[in-house]
Amino acid sequence: MDTIAPNDMTAIVEADRAHIWHHLLPHKPLETNDPRIIVEGKGMRVWDQKGKEHIDAVSGGVWTVNVGYGRVEIADAVHAQLVKINFFAQSAGSIPGSQFAERLISKMPGLSRVYFANSGSEANEKAFKMVRQISARHHGGKKHKILFRHRDYHGTTITALSAGGQDQRNAQYGPFTPGFVSVPHCLEYRAHEQEFGKGLTGEDYGVAAANAIEEVILREGPDTVGALCLEPVTAGGGVIVPPKGYWERVQEICEKYQILLHIDEVVCGVGRTGTWFGYQHYGVKPDFVTMAKGVASGYAAISCCVTSEKVFEMFKDDHADPLGYFRDISTFGGCTAGPAAALANMKIIENEDLLENTLRMGDYMLDQLKALQDRHAVIGEARGKGLFLGAELVKDRHTREPVAEKMVQAVVADCMAQGTIIGATNRSLDGYNNTLCFSPALIATKDDIDQIVSSVDSALGRVFG
Length: 465
Ligand SMILES: Cc1ncc(COP(=O)(O)O)c(C=O)c1O
Hints:
By secondary structure, this protein is an alpha/beta fold. Helix content is about 35%, strand content about 15%.
């Protein structure tokens, strides 16, 4: 028998306070303030334990619930699948696994294989392991290094953090896995702080930021570098949309030095930027694409590491070799709820034309944020792609000195008090946790966006005067 009645909110809050170790939170304040419990969701909105309604401008806090809350058709698809067969290790196949993989690959020309796992970190670890095994089997241990970019994030495990470009997030978790090497970020707004970027704008900066990667490759030795791992649009590092010319040059560099290109689509994948995948805005041809959050919009835990056939072939060239295959498993990669939910999620995006809505509403929201910038000097830059947007807050537009993180958090808290959940970069980059983040569900309407932007407008007015 349950000891807590599901609608006894006082008991729920006390049980939470006594036993839950929340993600991301310092817990001291929860000794005097109630933890927030989200009880219900519908469309773009969620309700907390007090029955207060919030509009959610960050799709479940961490850009995940792309198709919105309360999707009965996904729940029904998962239910039907679970009562048929819930799990079998992925050494065997499943009906929804095959169906989803086929449908996913139809959106990803040039790629052909789907490896199922259950978190973004894990999907990235799969790609890292594949790169290491390719190095061992095909390059005599050379080409084992993996490049990652300053300000990018690829997950929470120690090796994913080894590829993490956010100093504050990594602090106190070392020592890290060897063989991961940092390359510079490509945030044009902060080009003046980079040696190679000073005075450059637009395509000149984009090409220079990519050339900075080449410099690292030459310094390390091209025969030591196996892969380059990048977010298509950097998420928690400040919503960084790559400048013109960047991706084209990155692709050339990878081809020149035979470096595999791994694109981390954990945030951008499955519609967030208005194309199925973020890299598809830029005509890039990746060797690995990893994805998680929006794959099933949080209705089930599923992540995928998708590869080209060329990568896959490198694991089956010698049948006689007992170590010739990818000897890896993810137990919950065999949960059928994941692909069943992902398939239903993809159908919703297609049936409701959500990619098109994302492009249209994304443009509208960026225009609205730029209009806010005209009214609030504290917004140094508004930027974004599709429904994935950021507003970088600065003390002074001329020097671009970032505002303190506590001021950014005050804006987030003010919005929350108004019933609008927004996000912000936090405890990630020393001195640069100064970007408000927005990633509403792909179903957002103009009215939803107006409500979100109006809350930010009031909050900025109150916090910065
Ligand atoms: C770009 C990126 N990659 C990977 C991850 C890790 O995903 P997960 O938390 O599912 O392990 C995240 C999480 O925020 C992310 O933003």
